[in-house]
Write a structure and sequence with these properties.
Strand content: under 5%
Shape: elongated
Oligomer: single chain
Order of helices and strands: HHH
Largest sheet: none
Radius of gyration: 29 Å
Number of helices: 3
């Protein structure tokens, strides 16, 4: 009977096909990814914050030019609510990233 080379027999003779990296090398790669992801999240939060600030500014300007007092109050109230809610959201997201 010929010597049959099954995958199991080859694995036993040659050892594992992949090598496991040392913990220090693996940790360095994880830290690098964490820094890059952190920077991306910070950039996304900054962009979101600026977009909301521009929209809030637009709503306040729209409230200035309207003639209806109810519309003016509604626009200002919504703008203030949105600015406050965004500030809490962004502050919480940044604290979670630390």
């Amino acid at each position: 009977m010929e010597d049959d080379m099954t995958a199991t027999k080859v694995a036993r003779e040659t050892g594992p096909a992949t090598t496991i990296s040392k913990p220090a090398e693996k940790k360095a790669a994880v830290d690098t990814r964490r820094v890059l992801v952190g920077e991306a999240v910070e950039a996304a939060l900054h962009t979101y914050e600026q977009a909301v600030a521009n929209f809030v500014q637009f709503e306040h300007k729209a409230a200035e030019v309207t003639t209806s007092e109810r519309t003016k109050a509604a626009l200002n109230l919504h703008a203030t609510f949105l600015a406050d809610l965004t500030a809490v959201y962004v502050r919480t997201a940044r604290a979670a990233m630390r």
